[in-house]
Amino acid sequence: MIFLGISQKKFSDEQIELASNINIIAYAQSRGYDLKRISNNTYKIPGYGGLLISGDGSKWNWFSQNKGGGIIQFVMEMEGKSWVETVGDLLGISGIELPTIPKVKSVETKGEMQLPKKNETYKHLFAYLIKSRNIETSVVTEFVDKKLIYEDQYKNCVFVGYDLEGKPAYASRRSSRTTGEDFRGDVRNSDKSIPFYYQGEGDTVCVFEAPIDLMSYLSLLKLHGIKNFSHHMISLGGISDKALDGFLKSQSDIEKIVLCLDNDVAGNTACQILNAKYKTNYEIVRHVPKGKDFNEELKNMKNAMIGMAREPPEDYKEFQDFEEEMEME
């Protein structure tokens, strides 16, 4: 057998694994790429439209080119090298001790989630959601009746997600305080693959970052007099897609995803990532809020309606037509 230099060089599985584990961010910095952090979880390289690198340096996506992968694919794409050349170069780079992606440690088995103890009243929850957040009273009452929200003994609002057996598996808390430090966070041992879920019908799910955004959206629908809305609605509890992935696995009839994430850097970036990940199997549509999020849009609408006999202003009439206007590219 004749070998023609590096193009025929073979690598062991251990060598390939070593090359694959080199951190993309560390590599890019060592090669002089102009990295810009756009959120805690994402970097970009200016000049390469839509090319984003995950905050842990393990993967990248170039949305406008429909490309992505790990460090090997990154070097091949950015430097025009073959797979064999790339692995050889990365093995050489590893000799100067660029950081590698840490091995995922085995996770200890979680204990069972325990819902926070209920308060004897709901008055702080109602005051916060209705007066401070402007959510419609009928929406708040419905969620209380369905045991999706309640007030805990520390006057926090608790938002509950249930597994397929109807057992509470996820919960998040948010302070009902309107002054001072704002407290929020998931309850210990919550399963992030279980969403805060408002059950609908049909083949469409609307995806929000937070329960309050979801409830604000329902309030906007009511204010606009939209009565034929029946989509499923979930909250991710952030911008991770664990809850969406878990929901889609449990709901095989879903064909369309409406992304209703915040209109900020983190939300816009997350929409790009989710679109790239799910567009092969689902129709993806985005509804961009007028403002940072749908609660801000709701507040602005309520303020605009003061003195107008509760009639929505004309510039809000297009709310129900968003699907035709906001399709993801």
TrEMBL record:
One function term, GO molecular function aspect: zinc ion binding
Gene Ontology biological-process entries: DNA replication
Record Pfam families: DUF3991, Toprim_2
InterPro entries: DNA_primase_Znf_CHC2, DUF3991
Annotated TM spans: none
Domain DUF3991 residues, every copy: 127-196
Signal peptide limits: none
Name of the protein: Toprim domain protein
Provenance organism: Petrocella atlantisensis
